[in-house]
Amino acid sequence: xxxxxxxxxxxxxxxxxxxxxxxxxxxxxxxxxxxxxxxxxxxxxxxxxxxxxxxxxxxxxxxxxxxxxxxxxxxxxxxxxxxxxxxxxxxxxxxxxxxxxxxxxxxxxxxxxxxxxxxxxxxxxxxxxxxxxxxxxxxxxxxxxxxxxxxxxxxxxxxxxxxxxxxxxxxxxxxxxxxxxxxxxxxxxxxxxxxxxxxxxxxxxxxxxxxxxxxxxxxxxxxxxxxxxxxxxxxxxxxxxxxxxxxxxxxxxxxxxxxxxxxxxxxxxxxxxxxxxxxxxxxxxxxxxxxxxxxxxxxxxxxxxxxxxxxxxxxxxxxxxxxxxxxxxxxxxxxxxxxxxxxxxxxxxxxxxxxxxxxxxxxxxxxxxxxxxxxxxxxxxxxxxxxxxxxxxxxxxxxxxxxx
Length: 404
Known about the structure:
43% of the residues lie in helices and 18% in strands.
């Protein structure tokens, strides 16, 4: 959870959009009429930081639960965000929160997500709600807590075609990984999977992200990625006749109605034609192994958000993805970040025993795969800045393929 404040100049339009999205999320979770009738069971939430910039809904009624909801939802990425989180915790602990946190909402508990989850988990629980950006590809994420503030699990709701597919995919990934003996990576377990009001629901065990952190060495990260790469076994074969290329080719064919999709499809085919006799090794990848999806603790490397987990991809995709996302997070210009990742591909892929002559090809295949995902998910239409591939990823890819 990041308690970042909004820009100093929050326009009325921005505030209205965010407020509308908050109302939409509440309508999904509490589909009956708003609470207000005398005697009607209800749930009251504190809106953090406020209703104009909603980030988190914290259940009221227990100060201990409210503090745990703020402290244990996720780890802020910046020092400023941590300071703001700690300020909220201090206000809740001291009882001065009404002066700092004034906005509250009350919802009917009848036929609510709370009722469903209590039955599914078989325990009494309180729910806090993470309010992500108002985008079509985001989904409500709920933290489930007991009366003493312990985290029981996290629930994700797939509410549209894309998010329902992602929740189903993550469920399948976690179930598959539960049968693999992992010693370097800790992943959540599935506590419940089902449907509620047509929404796909996944409840997973909590990872202790609130534990003290230790620096993550490149060796530890590489070993963790290698373990996941081998989780479903390895295969080997020519790229042009591989199951991977057949699956990627199918995905590309579904985005050719978009201008960027047509250009991507052409570049990908030229790439594979150029190296049709290239032999590669294939394994699994997490699919979104980024700095914000893991935590390095003394006992384990915690990794979450497995909705993009896929077996049978060229080895090393996770290392390339992490490197690119780290550069983007660090503020590197997106186009330059892509170039740097390609230039560093040899070193990134050497732990996966990718021969130097295949490193750039593997990096370009990764970029094709990532671009196909962005286009299929309509990231640009959903408002993602990096969803506009023509401004950064696609020009680099086309230029690099042209040099081969």
